[in-house]
């Protein structure tokens, strides 16, 4: 009994002790809880505002996006030089081959690295690999056929809440055009694919087809139709397509315009022209927040880019035009906007062979544009110097994820253009643009634009555009 009492007493005593300890430390604890809450609030306010996501999802998304910004290495080992007979060596001493030579060489032992075979294809019907992008692999549509939308661009159709991907449908034989020795595929038309998630693409068919018989028509199959881009015009309710129109030796150098009532066509071809009376080759469109659309094209034998607004109906250019990046020989322009700054990715002019991308920035779309440098991160030096063995074509903003974009690029295969691959990678503009300093100490004024190499990556879970 005594023992029991003693136990009870002991128990009581300890309770009293805890209570007094609690009252003694309750103030600091409360303070820490408050600090914790404040920190959580601060963290919450720092996260991009994804209204439809819970805090937990936002933290997961944030972690995922952070992972996408980690540099991922990929080293390619050059194969040992092929054995040649001493006679052949004497006749023509072999110059050292580069990785780019290997990339372009059909019989290279490295071929499978640049152009993995069909067994590795990204297939929307294989659910265990859902939503993963594998830059460079064959990408199948929902019917199991390789997607044909090269040099393409994406339109998000707000009316149907669907993405439409338009590009060159190149599923024909590659041959060398006599005029210039360049590999080509006859025009087949503009392919169109639709998707709700940017990963599983349904073939919507050829929305603008080649002309089979009339040889004088711009779209006659013997000509060139490249880099189609589509915008929706709110005022007219029409879908307007612009594209590079050329002849087989690229001396016509025009832009073409087509129109449709629906995003999935058919598009009706209207006309082609030399915009502002200039030659025009690689081109793109960009629609600004105020719905003014711009045409950007390589001009004066690709030595400079031109930029100018379209008319209100998007069916023509206006008289306003500015030459930019003069003398810099850039092509394959792709534009984006972040926090009122305009950015542009361009490539050098080396035909189907890959080269180094550059990023440019401007406070006004009409310029002056400043060159920031090579935006590629990760892979290896040669990956970065070749835009991951590809050439940009379009930059897609990720809705609800301010500052995050996808770079769409083409890994051209001049030996068989229909088997050219897509390289989609995360692109980020980091932080608010630095304000120009009152005294210019030469600090960069722009946020960095970065494109991150990943062998395999995906958009955050539950991102649903
Ligand atoms: C590239 C251009 C491509 C295609 C190719 C033909 O410079 O970006 O769109 O025209 O040349 O060689």
TrEMBL record:
Sequence segments annotated as region (Disordered): 72-95
Stored CDD domains: GH43_CtGH43-like
Transmembrane segments: 21-47
A GO MF term: hydrolase activity, hydrolyzing O-glycosyl compounds
Gene3D superfamilies: Glycosyl hydrolase domain, family 43
Stretches with biased composition (Basic residues): 81-94
Biological process, per Gene Ontology: carbohydrate metabolic process
Keywords: Glycosidase, Hydrolase, Membrane, Transmembrane, Transmembrane helix
Coiled-coil portions: none
Top-level taxon of origin: Eukaryota
Stated family: Belongs to the glycosyl hydrolase 43 family.
PANTHER family per UniProt: GLYCOSYL HYDROLASE 43 FAMILY MEMBER, GLYCOSYL HYDROLASE FAMILY PROTEIN 43
UniProt name for this protein: Uncharacterized protein
Organism this protein belongs to: Carnegiea gigantea
Taxonomic lineage: Eukaryota, Viridiplantae, Streptophyta, Embryophyta, Tracheophyta
